[in-house]
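We both want to read discrete structure tokens more fluently, so let's practise on a single case. Once you have written the record down, we can walk along the chain together.
***
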Amino acid sequence: MKSSSDASVEEEQGFMSHLVELRDRLLKAVLAVGILFLCLFWFADDIYTLLAAPLMVHLPNSSMIAIDVAAPFFIPFKLTLMLCVFLAIPWILYQVWAFVAPGLYMHEKRLVYPMLVSSTLLFYLGVAFAYFVVFPLVFGFFTSVAPEGVEVSTDISRYLDFVITLFFAFGIAFEVPVATVLVVAVGITTPEQLRKIRPYVFVAAFIIGMFLTPPDIISQTLLAVPMWLLYEVGIVAATLYSDRIRDAGIAREKRLDGEEDDVAQTPTAAAPRDATADRTRARPPGGYSNSMTDAPDDPGTEGP
């Protein structure tokens, strides 16, 4: 039997190894952003021109202004750095996954990995929707309602803050299907209950759009309608996901029942197996077995 001092040393070594791995993962993520920045920094002005294109086509003189003295340099610099982080999101999430995955069971990996990939793709889709669909309509509306004699001339710093806010608003709003699947997967609710609250979600989408977008009905509607449609998509995905969770729970119960029959002749081993089976059979509010909230599988057969 190991002494308490040996156990404490091993625990400290395990903790330090996790810290070292976390440091390595963070360094790899920062290095990826740095490499992208070194490659794109030389095109900072062109990147800002591309970002400003949806507004520039609606300005009378097709030009913007810079109020601060250093803005012509720092604003494209800031935009390029944000773009590098944005492009490196898949690599950053991969580093997070590589750090966390060894501590997960196989059934947890099968549930988390699809949501991680889909959330990244949906965020990119939301940003693209804002740039190609929302910006032309919103900027066309803003410039067309200017009073006679007023020349629209936007500061490059305030324009960057405005579009970044919209990018995040639409990127987060497009995560509705992932959030819907997640609340079903952890047993908080069921697809049937989500269908019953459709009218409230429709109203809530417009309220959220009112807070996340500028004070105009166009951008608010363009955010609320996709959120509502994505909520419907999330219900369908949650239904398919809940069936997968229920099937996994049933298969695990059958496997545990078979193991219980094998060890039924050994009284000393039967007690802990019964306790594990009781925890596994705990039902979430949705009425089916949940592989994310139930007791994990046997580490010997499905460990990290």
